[in-house]
Amino acid sequence: MVIIKVINVEETEVAPNPHGVDARKIYDAESAQVVHITLKPGERLKKHVTPVNVAFYVYVLEGKGIIEIGDERKEVGRDTLIESPAGIPHCWYNESDDVLRVLVIKAPRPSKPTRIL
């Protein structure tokens, strides 16, 4: 019986998404969903609303990313956790010259789709 399940992000397929960015579901269970997003310089997500609370963990190779939640916009760097409440529009921007990687944790896994604004 295998207990340890190892998932390599680079070996996980890019999931189709309305943002047109590199997004990979690396964990998808009824209790939670984890998505690894890579934004190249100049890329961004479309502003959207998720039906569940979301936590973002930011890993920046260089530079910084910009998170927008509701009417607030903040520049954040590596090793940062940002909470985003359910039902509030949010968006990520990479206005730097470097790659931005964000780990998105949704709990519980959404039963309704994300709503693009």
Number of E strands: 10
Class by helix and strand content? Answer: mainly beta
Unreliable runs: none
Order of helices and strands: EEEEEEEEEE
Radius of gyration: 14 Å
Strand arrangement, largest sheet? 1-2-9-4-7
Major sheet description: 5 strands, antiparallel
Level of helix content? under 10%
Q: Do you know the CATH architecture?
A: Sandwich
Content of β-strand: 35-45%
Number of helices: 0
The chain-level mean pLDDT equals 93
Alpha-carbon distance between the two ends: 45 Å
The number of distinct structural domains comes to: 1
**Which fold name corresponds to the CATH topology?**
Jelly Rolls
Please state the overall shape, judged from the principal axes of the Cα atoms: globular
Structure in a nutshell:
With 117 residues, the protein is mainly beta.
Summarize the structure in words.
The chain has no helices and ten strands. By secondary structure, the protein is mainly β. A hairpin with a 2-residue loop joins β5 and β6. The model has no long low-confidence stretch (mean pLDDT 93).
Q: Which helices and strands, and how do they pair?
A:
Layout (H helix, E strand, L loop, with lengths): L21 E7 L4 E7 L8 E2 L4 E7 L4 E5 L2 E5 L3 E5 L5 E4 L6 E7 L8 E2 L1
Task: Give the tags.
single chain; 117 residues; mainly beta; Jelly Rolls; three-stranded antiparallel β-sheet
